[in-house]
Design brief:
The chain has 156 residues and is of the alpha/beta class. The protein has two domains: 71 residues, Glutaredoxin; 84 residues, Rossmann fold. Helix content is 35%, strand content 27%. The chain has a four-stranded mixed β-sheet with strand order 3-4-6-5, with helices on one face. A two-stranded parallel ribbon has the order 1-2. Helix 5 links the parallel strand 3 and strand 4. The longest helix has 12 residues. The chain is globular and about 45 Å long.
């Protein structure tokens, strides 16, 4: 069964990854995302990943539906315990194609620092439309310990 149909049947989101054989950074990103256990658990439980070469028939078809340089992008950020650097958050915010941001926080106390650059009104320091927190879900990856991670969905 093709991934789009399987995602629909399984009631999961379809995560489309348009790959370029000539762009090594896209392959490095794949490797880094799938190496993180929390990201893998999130993706496996909620998404069907469909990796498509940009020049394939399916890749060209998808890019036809979302023409131009800014297809809809869902960014998934899974930083270390110290959180994500403010420069990364400002860059995500300044990228209009990023319409949804999934933030996996292994240190819930750092969400405040991460949220502020995303939520502030536009200014010289915070370029781009702000995000709005839509959903926050606690995830207990370490049962019988006080540690809880959080997955937060931001949209704009």
């Amino acid at each position: 069964m093709r991934p789009p149909r399987f995602a629909n049947t399984a009631s999961k989101w379809l995560l489309v990854n348009i790959q370029s054989a000539t762009d090594f950074a896209s392959h490095v990103l794949n490797r880094d995302v799938w190496a993180r256990p929390a990201a893998r658990a999130l993706l496996d439980t909620s998404y069907v990943l469909w990796q498509v070469e940009a020049t394939s028939t399916d890749g060209r078809r998808y890019l036809t539906y979302y023409p131009g340089p800014n297809p809809p992008i869902v960014a998934v950020v899974d930083p270390p315990r110290c959180g994500v650097h403010a420069t990364v958050l400002k860059c995500l915010r300044a990228t209009p194609a990023v319409r949804r941001l999934v933030y996996v926080a292994c240190a819930v106390e750092n969400l405040h620092a991460a949220g502020l650059p995303l939520l502030r009104p536009p200014s010289k320091a915070y370029v781009g439309a702000p995000f709005v927190p839509v959903l926050a879900v606690p995830v207990d990856l370490f049962p019988q310990t006080p540690h809880v991670e959080a997955v937060v969905l931001f949209e704009r």
